[in-house]
Amino acid sequence: MQFTIPALFAAFTAFAAAAPAPALDTRQGGYFAAAGYKYSGGGCNPNQLIYADPIFGPGNICQPLDRSGTGAPILSYKTYEAAAGCSVALYSTSDCTGTKYSAPVNGCVTGNAPFVSVFITCV
Question: Is residue 23 situated within a structural domain?
Fold first, then answer.
């Protein structure tokens, strides 16, 4: 029995389409608790967008805001999505101490110094 590449591809595509998609809880370990836009200038100027970035994990932990190590200072931030029951706070310190900057969904936040860490509170 011989199979051609297009026939195999069609079979796999049909299989994948027929498989039910699992319901995802955004706060499971490998999923995001929030996501937002990082900017290299104040005021969330689209011309200064570093990139959009999800914040992974179950929340309730301080973590670096620049996980990928781009090194560009994050001078403003705009949360565009947060899991149900989660809120975002940004800090200019690596241990989430000092001034807390709340970052509500669709709100632009600019601090007095670059943001370096984030604390997602989930209830």
Answer: no
Domain-embedded: residue 11: no
Mean pLDDT per 10-residue segment, the chain (123 residues): 42 39 42 89 96 83 83 93 92 96 97 94 88
- CATH code of the domain in which 105 resides: 2.60.20.10
Distance CA 11, CA 19 (A): 12
By the 8 A CB rule, do 37 and 52 touch?
A: yes
Q: How many domains would you assign to the chain?
A: 1
What is the pLDDT at residue 10? 42
Q: Give the whole-angstrom CA distance, residue 77 versus residue 42.
A: 9
Q: Is residue 17 part of a domain?
A: no
pTM for the full predicted model: 0.73
Structure tokens at 19: 């498989």
Residue 29, helix vs strand vs coil:
coil
Both tokens assigned to 70 = 């781009």
Asked, for residue 39, whether it belongs to a domain, the answer is yes
